[in-house]
Amino acid sequence: xxxxxxxxxxxxxxxxxxxxxxxxxxxxxxxxxxxxxxxxxxxxxxxxxxxxxxxxxxxxxxxxxxxxxxxxxxxxxxxxxxxxxxxxxxxxxxxxxxxxxxxxxxxxxxxxxxxxxxxxxxxxxxxxxxxxxxxxxxxxxx
Length: 142
What we know:
This protein is mostly helical. It has helices at residues 16-27, 31-43, 49-79, 83-97, 107-124, 134-141.
């Protein structure tokens, strides 16, 4: 019975390859993860649940960022036509998405990069990076 004493604390080891691919997937906006899915499918290997979670989370996060940006640009195109509100909204959009504010990056770009680095660091460490609703959705997919 001595061998089974720490059975509840058992966690499968996460390979360095999975950590690197997961981290690089966040830093490349999901591109390396997408390529890794194709390569592993061609080689006939299955992805670990850790790599699959992080790759899909990176792809879904950056698709979400792209869709939100697209919707906001369409909405702001309509709002900028309005006489008084248009100039105020145009100034707010300029200072949040175009004016270099933090580390010579616009504020919105800096925030997206900060979230990507946060998730990449967690995946390099072999931990699961949690984003409030997205992680739950990705866990249901995987």
